[in-house]
Amino acid sequence: MTWRLRELLTEARSGIGPRGIAVGLIALTGLAAAATVSGMQAEGAIRQENSLRRDGSLVVAVQYRDGEDMERQRPLKGRDCERLNGLGGVQAAGGILLERPPAPVPFPEGPGIPALHVTPHALTVWQAEAPMDEIVIGPDLEDLGTVTVGTALIWDAGPAYQVGSRADAYIPHSGLRSAVMIPHHADANLSECWIKVSPGNQRLGLELATAVFSQAQVEIVPWLTAQTQTLSPTQQWHAFVDWHPWFAVAVFLALVIFVITWSRRSEMAVYRAFGTTNGELTLLITAETAVVLLPAALVACAISVTVTAGLADGTIPTDLASVIVRILGSTTLLTLGLTPVAARLAIRGTIADQLKDR
Amino acid sequence: MSLALTDVWFRYRTMQTHVLQGVSLEVGRGESVAVMGPSGRGKSTLLGVAGLILKAEKGEVRIDGHVRAPSDGPGLLGQSVGWILQTVSLLPRRGVVDNAAMPLLAAGWSRREARREAARRLDAVGIDPEDDRQARTLSGGEAQRVGVARALAPRPVVLLADEPTANLDAKTAALVGRVLFAAARDTALVVATHDEVLGAMADRIVRLGDPVESREQP
Lengths: 358, 218
Ligand SMILES: Nc1ncnc2c1ncn2[C@@H]1O[C@H](COP(=O)(O)OP(=O)(O)OP(=O)(O)O)[C@@H](O)[C@H]1O
Ligand SMILES: [Mg+2]
Fold this sequence. Notes:
Chain A is built from eleven helices and ten strands. Chain A is α+β, with helices and mostly antiparallel strands. Adenosine-5'-triphosphate binds next to helix 1 of chain B.
């Protein structure tokens, strides 16, 4: 004695009038705004994180301090630094030689140098992230006269690299990527050891540095202090709230659905007066909402991806697109979850009263 | 007896006095009753109680021999008890066939069957189902005839019509009245109306008088 589900859903589809279209347009606007704002925030956050990493937020620096009034301290051991390579969570480790290194093995007979970035006073060499065959040498290495721009470096039977350019000054630590070799001075003393960890392992970097260099008079510092560690609880809460405009949009849309359903109370009462239960009416309204909300979400997705990409130099990274899709998914689901509640509240009351409401 | 009210008392929660004070009414199958009386005397209220959308404070409502209350729910509402309402209450943007088919859909019919039955009902009240016009484009008289077709589609035991001709001119009112009384041959029909012409079409007239405040409360 109740509606067949199929017929109820057909009824929902046929029942969409100008009010339904209004809900769709409001939803489209709200969803597009929420997704675009969130997309732009995410874009900013991703860009900031990338630039923090480029600036060395994943690098822990262990520095030897040669104090004037202190008795002579033991410098950092190059081998201690080097053996950190290959540990889980460590992307690369290497450092700066305390004293100017002797001439390297003459090239090309000797073993090549498996690295790209060379810092002043260092024979530690780093493999850059990209491009693989681009080699940068430091001025001190070039001063030795054996390696210069254009020379090929061969490491064992490994790949050959061509020195592409010359670094004028200090190379950013973010260039650190893979294993580091100190070809001639594994035991050489370092003035500084750098540990570059993979994302999420900042603590590990600090702990490793402390454990390995506990014997030396050293200073262990993150290259950059992560900003999140310095936020007050209030600031963190604000940051959290800023991240959730979609939540507000879902609640707002539920309110719109409530108001629209309220304005259709007499229509709803007609359904009730001819045998439709409150539960079926709620389902009917939810289905109507879904019919306009889902296309609105799809269009909002297209709009916010386009707008965000337009603001971010025309391209949109996949992780950013997935942020937008997830925001829209959450908003749509939350709205659909709130719709039965809003609908139920709006059709509350006796049929007799509602039949008069017009 | 299709519809039997026995000593029904009803009071709106916001009111001091009872609108219905011990009303009794019996209507058999194929019989029609016009409920008449001045405005505000409780005609709509009486229909509301009989139609299970208002709960009697005291007294019994029997439909088809069974004692019924609003808590018996939508299984009866619009099905055993059909409604024709004063203000046009069609779904404005839907076609007349879908409008007339709605109570059948709510009773679990498939749309095809429901529309076929609704079309037959519309034919009987003089509305062309082939046209299937949107309800909002109908005249008042046409809309009210669609209302009659809709109420009768589930073959209700009782048909309640609350001022079905109030918004119509005399000629249209007479037409709708004739259609209503003809179509309702198989049910117990109760019509609340101010329209003497409509009232005269009924088998009986029940007049609701002034409420008497001094009467004993239940
Ligand atoms: N929901 C309500 N709450 C409180 N009082 C109500 C309500 N509905 C109706 N009344 C009152 O109950 C009385 C009877 O109302 P009812 O609608 O039954 O009258 P009626 O005979 O149908 O009048 P009319 O001919 O104008 O339609 C009136 O005094 C009215 O003011
Ligand atoms: Mg009335």
